[in-house]
């Protein structure tokens, strides 16, 4: 019986038209000898086989879709990992560039500050020297004026003292001359006596 079913499955296209038109009351096809039960079983198996093939095809398609989705997800994951890696590399490179820019900026600012500091210091030193020289000239001028004033006062004082001494000496000389005159007179008087 199994062989007949297999034979029928293999040769399903070769069944005679009479066996396909058998009624359920007929037991065997008069033309080819196929039993209705076998035919009915064959028909059910053929229907189940068609359903199973359809399900299998659907499962294959689902599997293909899932496989395609899985491959797409895997590609997406790989692409995401690659993009993440590129982003990390770019971030690292950007961080290094920013660090280098910051160092360069700090160095430039430090150099500018030092240059400005030394320039300001030089300007202040020049200003200090200028002020010092001006002050020194002013002090020398004032000192010269003070010295001149001091010398003038000393000269005036000396002249005054000289005049006073001359006066004292003149007075003393006049006194002495007067005394001398008196002494001469006294001497003459003594001589005359």
UniProtKB/TrEMBL annotation:
Residues 138-169, 178-193 have a biased composition (Basic and acidic residues). Keywords: Signal. It comes from the Eukaryota. Residues 138-193 are annotated as: Disordered. Residues 1-16 form the signal peptide. This is Myosin tail domain-containing protein. It comes from Amphiprion percula (Orange clownfish). The lineage of its organism: Eukaryota, Metazoa, Chordata, Craniata, Vertebrata.
């Amino acid at each position: 019986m199994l062989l007949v079913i297999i034979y029928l499955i293999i040769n399903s296209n070769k069944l005679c038209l009479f066996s396909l038109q058998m009624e359920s009351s007929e037991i065997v096809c008069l033309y080819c000898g196929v039993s209705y039960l076998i035919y009915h079983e064959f028909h059910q198996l053929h229907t189940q086989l068609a359903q199973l093939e359809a399900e299998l095809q659907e499962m294959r398609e689902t599997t293909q879709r899932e496989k395609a989705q899985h491959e797409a997800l895997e590609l997406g994951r790989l692409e995401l990992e690659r993009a993440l890696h590129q982003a990390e590399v770019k971030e690292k490179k950007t961080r290094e560039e920013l660090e280098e820019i910051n160092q360069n900026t700090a160095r430039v600012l430090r150099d500018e500050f030092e240059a400005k500091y030394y320039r300001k210091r030089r300007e202040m030193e020049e200003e200090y020297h200028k002020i010092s020289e001006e002050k020194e000239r002013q002090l020398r001028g004032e000192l010269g004026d003070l010295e001149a004033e001091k010398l003038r006062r000393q000269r005036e004082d000396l002249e005054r003292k000289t005049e006073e001494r001359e006066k004292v000496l003149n007075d003393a000389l006049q006194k002495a001359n007067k005394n001398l005159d008196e002494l001469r007179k006294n001497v003459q008087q003594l001589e005359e006596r």
